[in-house]
Amino acid sequence: NFTLTQPHSVSGSPGKTVTISCTGNGGSIANNYVQWYQQRPDSAPTTVIFEDNQRPSGVPDRFSASIDRSSNSASLSISGLKTDDDADYYCQSYDANTHSWVFGGGTRLTVL
Amino acid sequence: QVQLVQSGTEVKKPGSSVKVSCQASGGFFRDNAISWVRQAPGQGLEWIGGLIPVFGTMTYAQHFRGRVTITADTSASTTYMELRSLTPEDTAVYYCVRAGGVDLSSPPDVWGQGTTVTVSS
Questions:
Q1: Which of A45, A94, A103 sits opposite B111 (nearest CB)?
Q2: Is the separation of the CB atoms in A77 and A67 below 8 Å?
Q3: In a 3-state reduction of DSSP, which class is residue B77?
Q4: SS3 A67
Q5: In chain B, which residues have their Cβ closer than 8 Å to the Cβ of A36?
Q6: DSSP designation for B21
Q7: Based on the number of CB atoms within 10 Å of its own CB, is B56 exposed (0-12), middle (13-18) or buried (19 or more)?
Q8: In a structure prediction context, what are the per-residue pLDDT tens digits for chain B, which is 121 residues long?
Q9: Which of A27, A89, B8, B95 sits CB 3.0–4.6 Å from A2 for a disulfide?
């Protein structure tokens, strides 16, 4: 089965840039779109990136994402860190073999 | 703007069942796949299963197969998730999530507000 692996936590200082990785296992991450979600405590997730690198309206261009076929991974970068970016981030994709959604385990971003 | 409105908080005994509803307001329901996702306290997101209303087909995560049923009433733009034989490990927030297209390969685009289910004796 296809799975996604994220680091448990990352941290950065205000104004800096952090990158969160999402590594595919058991299949190519490029086969289906990857989405990224931000989740604050006691709230539903919200989309910050869809279809690998597209930002929904209202999401600042400080958020960007890419796919690296050579490492079979996706990455979410957040530049110009703000304290408001302090949240959990999840990557998500689709497993065509099992017709299921797959989520990474989530990464806690702490803005120090 | 489509919104997914879920039913309210549930408290259940071990061994019982829970049925959570999710109504789509403000948009057409039948042409979008719907998934259910849960999040246990302090844990990550876990996909439970999905429904493709236009074909009437369902698919479930292996972990839940045999214990969950997802159904839809397209006339009421409502989907339901029933989970049976509950244990305390089923305590979680349950979300319905709409896919952006007709099948589950389409990325999620709208999330419900979540329904808290607590299983305790």
A1: A45
A2: no
A3: coil
A4: strand
A5: none
A6: E
A7: exposed
A8: 789 999 999 999 999 999 999 999 876 677 899 999 999 999 999 999 999 888 889 999 999 989 999 998 888 889 999 999 999 999 999 999 999 999 999 999 999 999 999 999 9
A9: A27
